[in-house]
Amino acid sequence: MKPDLSRLYPLGWPWQRELRYTGLALGFAALYAFFRFVFPMQKAINQLYQLQGQKRVLIPGAVVPPFPTLYQGAAAGFVLVALCLILLPIFHYRWHYQGSRSIYLMRRLPRRWELGRRCLAGPALELVCTALCALAMLLLCFLWYWLFTPAGHLPEDVWAGIGGLLC
Predict the structure, then answer these.
(1) Under 8 Å CB-to-CB from 11, ≥6 apart: which residues?
(2) Distance in angstroms (rounded) separating the CA atoms of residues 20 and 136
């Protein structure tokens, strides 16, 4: 059973299109984050090896950079989506001033907060989904970092470079 999300948006607002575009933007942000992380990660892993004749051999004692160094800047797409979503309630509010839609009628409804709910609830839900997608991408990239780094070549402090907040 599908939830009725139309109650979270202004009456007549094309909310399905808004959700589709937000999903598309989140998809692009996730792809950007993934590739922005994978290319430096692959370069760091390649620097762990040296050629001896025809074979690639791991350099003893070499380590990959800490995770935040490799993930730096990868979440920029999610930040851009979040900034756009923060501006979206302005468009929702302005929607009530167009054509026969009456802002006066919305203000007279028995439920006092109906106008605010319809302007803020949809973007807030999309903002939460953006944060969850950014967190999921961070975890996916960290798993990639953890699993694809050869054994014994992780740094002692994987989270170095962020001020020890997660240590």
Answers:
(1) 101, 118
(2) 20
